DNA sequence: TTGGATTGCTATGTTTTTGATAGCAGAGGG
DNA sequence: CCCTCTGCTATCAAAAACATAGCAATCCAA
């Protein structure tokens, strides 16, 4: 149908479609992880609410990502609106540690940038 | 410098640059997770070896992703070639469960497709 | 010293994907 | 009927990714 990265078919990173690579292909699309994250953090919601949670996603891309995620059985559309499937929640659970890591990561980046800044300052002596 | 998603600056998913969203922005770029994965699975290697491991990445994109990952302190270039940093290994560790999940995911997708196929077959009765 | 072979890219032109914005059609509710 | 909310699609511009060719800087043996 579309260009969904089906395991078993050639995907980015694997001509034989290794599931891991297929998953990376799917999640490596812009906003994919963010959309799943928002749905799992904030609970089921409407298209527009989801768009709002993402702060700056365009409807075209959101729609595209929703299609991907639905086709990937990670998100479904119910009377309550869009929500993660059981499978989607499992995946989102794996994303949780990323949040914690991101804090540490941000600290390192800050330190490094401050160091760089000091170096730059010193160069001006 | 480039358009690296620095935590604290506007990134996809967060105008205030929440670290989690900044990380998603970085990892949500094509090949980002795949490159990190390959480096952590196969160990340090040269640019061309890495390109080979990725099976179908173009040098331009690989170079771009390497820049991102280096700027993100996740990958470094040593005399042994490119290799993940300590921080990069921590992140890659979080990626490991994805591989297991991907197997389950692939199974579900297959089942669903077979069901769909059967439905389609039945429609032909 | 010179002719490969390897490495880390850059250059170029094309195709996809995203992004920004406008707006439409259908389902309620009043 | 009018208004709002919802889930999108249409359109066009910009950015990213892709495919391919090839270059400059090692390195290394002859």
Describe the protein in words.
The structure is a homodimer of 125-residue chains. Chain A is mainly alpha-helical and 125 residues long. The first copy, chain A, has one domain: Orthogonal Bundle (Arc Repressor Mutant, subunit A). Chain A contains five helices and two strands. Chain A has helices spanning 19-27, 32-42, 47-53, 59-71, 86-123; strands at 75-78, 81-84. A two-stranded antiparallel sheet of chain A has the order 1-2. In chain A, β1 and β2 (81-84) form a beta hairpin. In chain A, α2 (32-42) crosses α5 (86-123). The longest helix of chain A has 38 residues, at 86-123. Chain A is globular and about 50 Å long. Chains A and B meet through α1, α2 and α5 of A and α1, α2 and α5 of B. The first copy, chain A, binds a DNA duplex (30 and 30 nucleotides) through α4.
